[in-house]
Automatic annotation (TrEMBL):
Gene from which the chain derives: rpsI
One CC-aspect GO term: cytosolic small ribosomal subunit
Single GO MF annotation: structural constituent of ribosome
Name this protein carries in UniProt: Small ribosomal subunit protein uS9
Database matches in Pfam families: Ribosomal_S9 (PF00380)
Organism (species): Pelagibacterium luteolum
Keywords, ordered alphabetically: Ribonucleoprotein, Ribosomal protein
TM annotation in the entry: none
UniProt GO BP: translation
UniProt record similarity statement: Belongs to the universal ribosomal protein uS9 family.
Superkingdom of the organism of origin: Bacteria
NCBIfam families: PRK00132.1
Length: 159
């Protein structure tokens, strides 16, 4: 630290300062050429594999349209693929357990996003900006003693 920086021009020529500290991300694939990631949401945990293909999404051995009948849940699954502009380019195989259908859809969405960044690291800024890489940490609050539910009290009666 013997070098003193007095202006912005000096900052550019300063030695010993690393300008690019961002970690270099590289593609991580298994022996079958697939990217694997785990997604979580509420009590649901999803294991997701992504490989190049025709855009087929399979959840627990079923077509995702059959597994998630509600269009909103189908849309949630497709969000990261649409945001990355990779529709009909990857096949997704997911196994999900725990929670309800909404939590499972969110877990698969999280897993697809993580797996896409492992398959194509240059997609990370797009998915990060869309908020797909952040795990939604909201879970059900526990029931407290002396309460009917987590916060609801029993009905009050004066007499």
């Amino acid at each position: 630290m013997s070098e003193t920086i007095n202006s912005l021009e000096d900052l550019g020529t300063a030695t010993g300062i690393e300008t690019n500290d961002a970690p270099v991300r590289e593609q991580k694939l298994d022996a079958y050429g697939r990217a694997y990631a785990t997604g979580k949401r509420k009590d649901a945990v999803a294991r997701v594999w992504i490989k190049p293909g025709s855009g087929k999404i399979t959840v627990n051995g079923k077509e995702f349209v059959a597994y998630f009948a509600r269009p909103v849940l189908q849309m949630i699954l497709n969000q990261p693929i649409v945001a990355a502009e990779r529709v009909d380019q990857y096949d997704v195989i997911a196994t999900v357990a725990g929670g309800g259908l909404s939590g499972q859809a969110g877990a698969i969405r999280h897993g697809i996003s993580q797996a896409l960044t492992l398959f194509e690291p240059e997609l990370r800024p797009v998915l990060k900006k869309g908020g797909f890489l952040t795990r939604d940490s909201r879970v059900v609050e526990r029931k407290k003693y002396g309460k009917a539910k987590a916060r609801r009290s029993f009905q009050f009666s004066k007499r």
